[in-house]
Design a protein that fits this description.
By secondary structure, the chain is of the alpha/beta class. It has two domains: about 190 residues, Vaccinia Virus protein VP39 (Rossmann fold), CATH 3.40.50.150; about 70 residues. The protein is built from 14 helices and seven strands.
Length: about 270
């Protein structure tokens, strides 16, 4: 087991905050992340943003194999030397590259301290794979994940993530847990794949509709739908508006439940049935 302070000293870096490099140093939080990971099949763990290897070290202990993705070539060079033995025994595989561009390997769970600026994009890439996720994210981002309708935090992120998984905020993490204090609190969230309690006949149509109307969340649905066909690719918005009825169309996007959006998406898929 490696000491986080020793790894930081060996790496000779404080992190590049322009790349969202805030290294988790609190051994208690690192141990708990490891424990949360153990709730799932750890045969092959995907770690995004390996940094100086503080979390990587914990994950290698419990996994049949870890794939760690790191965009910073200097940190990849450091990790390649520091974890030379684990790499030689195939306990660890390093990928240098952008998580949004590299080909992802098969994995059974992802346990990661995500770069906060990219959290949404990374999550939207991981969720369709329907694997468990244990993630460190910005606290405000975590609150958006579990938000309820009619709240400012509720939106595209809430509905999209909830479509794929049951989500729980496990704990809040202080800025003091990092080598350089971020300006915000963090949180650990657990996302467990699940089926939604509504039926969507065309998932792409559902997700495109949600994405589109929340770009105009202050408008009523009737106007949001009309104004965002370039995003939703709805060919006949007038038909959808007529078939959906006044109650849904006079609501704002943030007032509708995921099940309401499923109704609208299913009208798009089978307009003659409604």
């Amino acid at each position: 087991m490696r000491n986080p302070k020793d790894l930081l000293k060996k790496a000779r870096t404080k992190g590049n905050q322009n790349l969202d490099q805030y290294f988790l140093m609190d051994e208690g939080v690192l141990d708990r992340l490891q424990a949360y990971a153990r709730e799932f099949d750890c045969n092959h763990i995907l770690e995004i943003g390996a940094g100086i290897g503080n979390l990587t070290d914990k994950l290698v202990e419990i996994s049949g194999g870890v794939t760690a993705i790191e965009i910073d070539p200097l940190l990849v060079d450091f990790l390649s030397l520091e974890f030379k033995e684990e790499i030689s025994t195939k306990k660890l595989h390093l990928i240098q590259g952008d998580i949004l561009e590299v080909q992802l390997p098969p994995y059974t769970v992802s346990v990661s301290n995500l770069p906060y600026e990219l959290s949404s994009k990374i999550l939207f890439r991981l969720l369709p794979n329907k694997m468990p996720l244990v993630l460190m994210v910005q606290k405000e981002f975590a609150q958006r994940l579990v938000a309820k309708p009619n709240t400012p935090e509720y939106g595209r992120l809430t509905i999209t993530a909830g479509h794929y998984a049951d989500i729980e905020i496990i704990e809040t993490v202080s800025p003091l847990a990092f080598n350089v204090r971020p300006a915000v609190e963090s949180a650990i969230v657990k996302l467990v794949p699940s089926k939604p309690d509504y039926v969507v006949e065309n998932e792409a149509a559902f997700l495109q509709l949600v994405t589109a109307v929340f770009t105009q969340r202050r408008k009523k649905m009737v106007n949001s739908i009309k104004n965002t066909t370039h995003i939703s690719h709805i060919e006949n918005p007038t038909s959808l508006i007529e078939l959906a009825g006044e109650e849904l169309m006079n609501s704002r996007p943030g007032e509708l439940t995921p099940a309401d959006f499923a109704i609208l998406a299913n009208i798009l898929t089978n307009p003659a049935d409604d």
